[in-house]
Design brief:
mainly alpha
Length: 64
C-alpha cells in the first residue's frame, strides 16, 4: 500500500507540472524581451538547467 505522502503527491502531480511550466514560461518571456534575436532552443535549455540547479539547491537546504 502506498504511503499517504505518495498518494497526496499523485493527486498534486498535474498541478506541480502546471506551476513549473508557468515558471519556465515566465523566464522565456523575459529572455524574449531582453534578447530580440534569441536562440529559443538555447534559451530554453539554459532556463531548464537553472531550474534544475535551483531545485537541487532547495533540496539541499531542506531539513533532513
Amino acid at each position: 500500500m502506498a504511503k499517504m505522502e505518495q498518494i497526496e503527491l499523485n493527486k498534486l502531480r498535474g498541478e506541480i507540472i502546471v506551476d513549473v511550466k508557468s515558471l519556465v514560461e515566465k523566464y522565456r518571456t523575459i529572455f524574449d524581451w531582453d534578447i530580440p534575436e534569441i536562440n529559443q532552443s538555447l534559451a530554453d535549455k539554459l532556463i531548464l538547467q537553472e531550474v534544475r540547479k535551483a531545485l537541487d539547491t532547495i533540496e539541499n537546504q531542506l531539513p533532513h
